[in-house]
Design a protein that fits this description.
The complex is a heterodimer of chains A (169) and B (433). Chain A is mainly alpha-helical. Chain A contains four helices and no strands. Chain B has 433 residues and is mainly α. The radius of gyration of chain B is 22 Å and the shape is globular. Classes of the chains: A mainly alpha (169), B mainly alpha (433).
Chain lengths: 169, 433
Amino acid sequence: MPHPEHKPLGLFWRGVVLLGRVMTGTAALALAATILVICVDVALRTAGHPVKGAYDLVRIFGAITIACALPLTTAVKGHVAIEYFFQKLNRTGRLVVDSLMRLIMIGAFALAAWECVGYGNRFLRNRQVTDTIELPIFWLPWLMAAAFGLSAVIVTFHLLHPGREMIRP
Amino acid sequence: MTPLTIGTLGCLALLLLLVCSLPVGLVMGIVGAAGYAFVVSGKAALAMLSANLYDVFSNYSLTVIPLFVFMGQVAFHTGISGRLFAAANCWMSSLRGGLAMATVGACAAFGAICGSGPATAATMAAVALPEMRRYRYDDALASGTVAAGGSLGMLIPPSVVFIVYGILTEQSIGKLFIAGIVPGLLVSILFCATISAICRLDPKLAPATVAVSWRARVRSLAGVLETLVLFAFVMGGMFAGWFTPTEAAAIGAAGSVAIAAVGGHCSLRMLWTSAQETLRTSCMVMTIVAGATVFGHFLAVTGLPMQFAATLAGLPVPPWVVVALIIAFYLAAGCFIDSLALILLTVPIFHPVIQGFGYDPIWFGVMIVLVTQMGVITPPVGVNVYVVSGIERSIPLQTVFRGATPFLLALLVASALLVCFPGIATWLPGLMR
């Protein structure tokens, strides 16, 4: 019988991992697009023809990069925390504090997701667009909401499966 | 309850949640939003939260972070770090402790294309540490050199800490980058002087290595050329006013990929690995920035920073004593809190004080980066020491801490020089267009 840490993930969690990987891929593409837009803009600017809306595009790609990187960062426990004092606790103390902190994290991510949905809805109602090329941006807060929501689910995995890795860092 | 009391209680709650190991960015966001709700209203707090998250995630200036991190990651994965070390070794191997000095030189050079201290330490731990151990260098000296040398990545531009400080205090990121060059070189020289002094006191710590011919030395410079070109183009472009820091970062990232392609090191796997590392690091930094922004808004409505600044300004002591106290605070707190988090937490409080006294914010930025640099090699939370010990598991943590201790003296000397001669940091930015 496989060790619990090496047991294959269930269908739901495999779906979560897949979604996380899709978001990571999207973030990587957005990063590449940022580099491309800026380089083309700088090159064309020297010829007197800057890319119209480069600033808008960089802001959009930047937001996609960071939002879509959130599930990966959460899955590999990549957020900075001060663990020095926590490590001084005994095993039970660590388990209690860790569970409590993960519950707070789930609540915080879920609240951020909910608020981002509302923020996107307000953008949609007000027909909010970018400054130069007037692209609609209501979907950006929605994308952020999806990232926060998925991160809440990932922290739930860590809470339910202590010591088990969802994605190897 | 007065807003000031709520502000103080908020800071205490922040400390409590921090020691419970909740991620720093989340702690600042949660306490900031909750405190704002207490002082203003729940509805306003939630509106502020979503608006701040969106503003930080889509901030044009902050895009510079993933771009510079990507540049460093590509440089690491294509072996630039190894070539830098080989070149530095050729030039310094004839000196006693030459391999350790070469490590410092390679750290400084790698810091010029990588914006993170721990990343520089990790890179050099993989490249330089095995080489020093092969030549029977003392473990404490070898590992301490890598940990301390890695901290140069925080000071030598591009530096993530400078970017965040610049955005927080509305200072020019370009000027901050340029301001870090001379202090970075100064610290590198002081580190080499420290190694030389240690080796003179106890020659057994660093056995002599084989001297390299002048021909081999000149040939080794080819390994430095790519870094030099990249750094000169990115920093030179900013210095000359050709492009903004964000544009410089994108060009640097594209340049590092181009160099990798020319050298035959570019592959989809390398790009994917570099991108993943970049996304993880950038998201970690941006989460802290977002949290700090929310917390900053909370502090602003409580009036705590202004009150604190007024109290400090009203103390019956000369301004330099207050500045010395602030530096001492960073020195102490840096031992426990991650440098970036510490700067994000405290700059909104101390920046008005420094401005009130008429000190140059660029100088102050360099100063606190230099001081928090000490935090990454001091116990108990010396990040670089953990990184080095984590990569070379056969060297105990306490050995690395012991080895890094002499370099603290060098950093203290550099801090004292920067206080006595602020021009070390402000001269180069003063020449910028």
